[in-house]
Amino acid sequence: MNKTAESRSDRSLSLILLFAGTLFISATLMFVVQPMFGKLLLPLLGGTPAVWNTCMVFYQILLFLGYLYAHYLGVKQEKHRQILIHTVVLLISFIALPVALPEGATPPTESNPTPWLIWTLFIAIGLPFFVVSATAPLLQKWFAQVGHHTSHDPYFLYAASNAGSLLALLSYPFILEPNIGLAEQRLLWSAGYVLLAVLIGACAFMLWRSHQQAMANPLVDDEIDIANLKLSTKLHWLVLAFVPSSLLLGLTNFISTDIASVPLLWIIPLTLYLLSFVLVFSKWADKIHPLMVSLQPIVLLPFIAYSFINPAVLPYWLDLTLHLLAFFLAVMVCHGELARMRPHTHHLTDFYLIMSFAGMLGGMFNTFVAPFIFDAVYEYPLMIVAALMLRPGFFSQKWTLQAAFPALLLLAGLTVYALADNLAHYLDSIGAGLILLAGLTYSFRKRPLSLALLSGIILFFTSGLHSLLSNTLYQERSFFGVFSVRESVLTDENGRPEKYHELFHGTTKHGAQRLVPEKVTTPLTYYSRPGPMGQLFKVFDGQNDHWVIGSIGLGAGAMACYAEPQQHWSFYEIDPLVIKIAQNPDYFTYLQRCAPDADMVVGDARLSLTDEADQKFDLLILDAFSSDSVPTHLLTREAIQLYFAKLKPNGLLAFHITNRHLALKKVLADHTRHLQLAALIQEFKPQQSIPLVVATDWVVLARKEALLRPLQQSRLGNWQKLPLYFDMKPWTDDFTNIIGIWK
């Protein structure tokens, strides 16, 4: 810029505050609507983590389209036409206000609900989210043209945008969700969107004014030679953005199914992801980036050694911390390289367009590709390896030398697998060897390809070891998670080894069956005869011959072995894969032997029960879990009212509330008080060691205390009145608060 232009540049703080404030509000709205609509949609799809991941893909697709639109305006249109076109788009988007789900939105029950979910989101918030998505690159492009003295490098505004995203994401579970219902959240978001439109209008006015001033007083600037972007540079940007995006969804899926299936944890990886953008585009980036590059291989050692090779030695919170720390360092290195390679403002929209496109590809890979080519969450370790390849120095070393040692190591490992007749005898030695190799990775910290390949080999053999140890008979992945059937060995009552089968969802056991003829119809784990459900059926034995019983949640089908010949049983199961496993006699025979005529109803339980006749059931059993968590929409006041509408006047509602992280009894106690119901709870712990009889918590509810008196007076278990909690705000379809029941 020449001296005359420089002297006339705007140095006012108000201009920065206007653009930064607009971007801050835009990002806040973007990251409030994501958990808000995730919460609206979760009840329709059983609370599975895949709902959150699919929503993320939708947001990434709209983000890319918004960036593409901003790129088109910034490159192809004059300033005044940009303003006119964007004003029209803003006005059209108002037809979606106030934002809400379409009436009668019902997911398919027999097919993958992903397309339905994306279409529903598009109808509900597609237009406003498109506008919000376009705001960040478009306003930065405008700021680069308004003549401010910082216009030559507007990337600091991206940090302001991500700071808004970070604040919104953290405020949702701790401020908005505990205090404001979904209906009010939707209205507040719509009002915030109108405010954003006004602020965008103010930014457009500043651009228009600067354009008019430039037309009235044209200046001749010095010529700036701006080189065209190389294809290699664009591809480098692409992979640097693709890997963190895929890693984000992979880690979210992994921690939700393999560490702790708690909805609150889903936002932590996204929070770290956004924080990385704030840091790498800040003024401290030049000091932070080398530190992250140095720390990554140091953290990699305990991460691989314990979180992958031997996770059983760690408490879940420490395992989770290692995964999150390794993830944060990986995305900091990738995003730090992106920030370091950011181009001149002439290519600003190209830069953001490629970033958003890569983010969309990463999400689509995890949601649409990985579930069909992998039967577990293998995309997560795969992207860990890819992130290591993107460390600085990848192109400065000779690839043949970098790959030589890992290749020899892989060959040696395959030879061990091929020649060893029984690897189980050498597991301790192999595990120790892998941990030593994890330590060796640090010596390759300056050779990205060697570091990545060596880490990949360790993870490859670790996966094989875990598969060998678990004796997996069957594993398949559906929209609702990874299900596996494993063959294990127990010590029977006579001290002899005995094989049995287990059903797992992620790392949470969902049922087991002994295979010896005299035990094959014995319900086990949470449904054992010494436990609460066995006690309930024994107490009411003799008067339940003709009961109509509904069970929400199937698992391995163990509950079916409480069925009497004249009873009618219906199982409500959201995932067809679970029914397929439970009905396969190669894995479990509970259904085949005990209730071959039981009805199987596929779909979300609340939607399915709505179609049932009122006062149909004598007993309803709530045993629906997504890994370790009961879907929250099955715990609301409206849900309890629905269950009792379908129960006969003397009917019973049995609720399985075993949970490692959440005190679900508080929610049911509050419903009991407000709906004037009677309730008993038993937090069962086996008094003697019986194979596959485990501790479990159950609550039984009824309209009158007299209906529960036989259970309370029996000496079969320690049934107690459900304690009252007066610090609870009632859970409804409009309001739930996970923080309030955290153990």
Notable characteristics:
743 residues, four-stranded antiparallel beta sheet, Growth Hormone, Chain: A, alpha/beta, 55% helix, single chain, Rossmann fold
Explain the overall architecture.
This protein is of the alpha/beta class and 743 residues long. Among the domains are: 1-103 and 111-219, Growth Hormone, Chain: A (Up-down Bundle); 527-741, Rossmann fold, CATH 3.40.50.150. Helix content is 55%, strand content 11%. The chain contains 23 helices and twelve strands. The chain has helices spanning 3-7, 13-41, 49-76, 79-93, 114-143, 156-179, 182-216, 231-259, 267-280, 285-309, 316-340, 348-373, 379-389, 399-419, 427-440, 448-470, 532-539, 576-582, 590-594, 605-610, 637-646, 665-675, 705-713; strands spanning 472-478, 481-491, 497-505, 508-514, 548-552, 568-573, 599-602, 617-622, 647-656, 678-684, 696-702, 720-721. It has an eight-stranded mixed β-sheet with strand order 7-6-5-8-9-11-10-12, with helices on both faces. The chain has a four-stranded antiparallel β-sheet with strand order 1-2-3-4, with helices on both faces. A hairpin with a 2-residue loop joins strand 3 (497-505) and strand 4 (508-514). This is Fused MFS/spermidine synthase. InterPro entries: MFS_trans_sf, SAM-dependent_MTases_sf. It comes from Methylomarinum roseum. Keywords: Membrane, Polyamine biosynthesis, Transmembrane, Transmembrane helix.
